[in-house]
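hey
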C-alpha cells in the first residue's frame, strides 16, 4: 500500500479482541489474554485489601470481584462462546480466585463457592451475556441488518452449524426460554425479556447447584 509492504501477521487486535486465522485459535488466545489481564487486575487491588486474610469484608470483596475482575475475565466471551476445555479454563480461574478470597482450601466443593458467594458459574454468566446481546438484536427495527441476519441464520442454519445465532438457539433450549426465531417478533420490552432470561438462567443453575450440593455430606 503506497509502495509500502504490508506485513503479514498471524493475529491482530480489534476492539480489544484478538483475531487469528481460525475461530479455535481466537477462543484460545482471548481466554489466555483475559486470564492474564484478570490476574493483573486482582494484583492491582491487593494493596486495598483484596485478599483473604486480614483483608476487606466479604461483601466488599465480592463487589470488587464483580465490577473489576469479572468484566475483564468475560470480555468478548459473549461473541466467542467457548465450550468444554476452553470454558473450563475460565471456570478454574474463577473458582481458584474465589477460594483464595474466602481463604478456603483448594479441595472445597464447587457448590460451596457458589452458595457462599452468590456468584453463578462462568458458563451461566456467559450465557446471560449472549442472551443480552441477542435481546438487543430482537428489540431493533425489523429492517435492521442485524435482525435480518438473525432471521436468515435461524431459518437456514442447522443445529450443527457454528453460527452464533444457532448457539443462541441452543442456549434458549437449555434454559427453556422458547423459540429463538419467535423472539425476533415478540411484543415485549427489552427489560421484560432480560428479566425472563435472568429468571430462566438463575432457576436452572440454582437447581443444579443445589442438586450437586446434596452429594457432599458436609454442605
Amino acid at each position: 500500500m503506497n509502495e509500502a509492504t504490508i506485513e503479514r501477521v498471524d493475529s491482530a487486535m480489534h476492539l480489544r479482541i484478538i483475531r487469528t486465522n481460525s475461530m479455535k485459535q481466537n477462543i484460545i488466545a482471548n481466554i489466555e489474554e483475559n486470564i492474564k489481564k484478570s490476574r493483573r487486575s486482582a494484583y492491582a487491588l491487593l494493596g486495598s485489601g483484596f485478599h483473604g486474610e486480614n483483608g476487606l469484608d466479604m461483601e466488599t470483596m465480592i463487589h470488587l470481584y464483580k465490577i473489576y475482575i469479572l468484566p475483564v475475565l468475560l470480555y468478548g466471551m459473549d461473541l466467542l462462546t467457548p465450550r468444554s476445555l476452553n470454558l473450563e479454563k475460565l471456570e478454574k480461574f474463577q473458582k481458584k480466585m474465589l477460594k483464595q478470597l474466602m481463604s478456603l482450601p483448594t479441595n472445597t466443593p464447587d457448590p460451596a463457592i457458589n452458595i457462599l458467594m452468590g456468584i453463578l458459574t462462568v458458563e451461566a454468566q456467559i450465557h446471560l451475556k449472549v442472551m443480552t446481546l441477542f435481546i438487543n438484536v430482537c428489540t431493533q427495527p425489523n429492517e435492521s441488518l442485524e435482525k435480518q441476519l438473525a432471521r436468515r441464520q435461524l431459518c437456514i442454519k442447522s443445529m450443527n452449524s457454528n453460527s452464533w445465532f444457532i448457539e443462541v438457539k441452543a442456549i434458549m433450549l437449555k434454559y427453556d426460554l422458547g423459540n429463538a426465531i419467535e423472539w425476533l417478533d415478540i411484543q415485549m420490552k427489552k427489560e421484560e425479556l432480560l428479566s425472563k432470561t435472568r429468571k430462566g438462567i438463575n432457576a436452572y443453575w440454582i437447581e443444579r447447584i443445589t442438586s450437586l450440593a446434596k452429594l457432599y455430606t458436609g454442605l
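The chain has a mean pLDDT of 92. The first strand starts at residue 12 and ends at 14.
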